[in-house]
Amino acid sequence: MKIDLKELFEGQKNTIDIEVQEPYKNFNYYNEEISFSKPVVFKGQAYRVNHEVFLKGIVEGVLLLKCHRCLAPFEHAITHHIHEKLTVRNHEQAEEDELFSVEDYMLDISDIIENSLVLAFPMKVVCDENCKGLCLVCGTDLNESSCECEKSEIDPRLLKLKDLLQQD
Ligand SMILES: [Zn+2]
Ligand SMILES: [Zn+2]
C-alpha cells in the first residue's frame, strides 16, 4: 500500500496520520512460511519539521510460528518502533545517507512493514526458553513425558564414521 505525501513535502500540510492494516496471509522468512493470527498494523504519523519529512510509528502483529525444538505451534507478538527520515531522492542515493526513499512522494508503507517484520523476527524460534524438544530417537515430546531411550549411546552410523576418521 502506498501513501501520497506530496502535500507534506510541499508544505501544504505539517502532519499526515497513517493507520494501515496489512492482511498478510503468509510471509516468507528464510524459506519458512510464517502466518499471522491477525492483520499486521502500522499506526503512526508522517510529519514535517524545518523542511524535512519524517515518519514515526509502531508496527504490531502476532506471528504464528512452529517451535524448532518440539514442533508445537505458538504465537509470538511483535512490536517494532519506526523513526525514519524520508527523502524524495531515489533509492541508491537515499541508502548512502541511510534515509528512506519516497519516490514520486509515494510512501511504500508495505515495504516499511515488511522490514519491521524481518527486524523484529525472534532469534530463536522456540515455544519456551526451556522447551525440551523431541527425543531424537523415538520422537516423544519430552515436555510432556519422558522415554527410555539411551541418550548417551552413540549412533552406530557415527561409530563407523569415528573409525574412518581414526584411520589416518
Ligand atoms: Zn517447543
Ligand atoms: Zn526416546
UniProtKB/TrEMBL annotation:
It comes from Geosporobacter ferrireducens. It comes from the Bacteria. Pfam families: YceD (PF02620). This is DUF177 domain-containing protein.
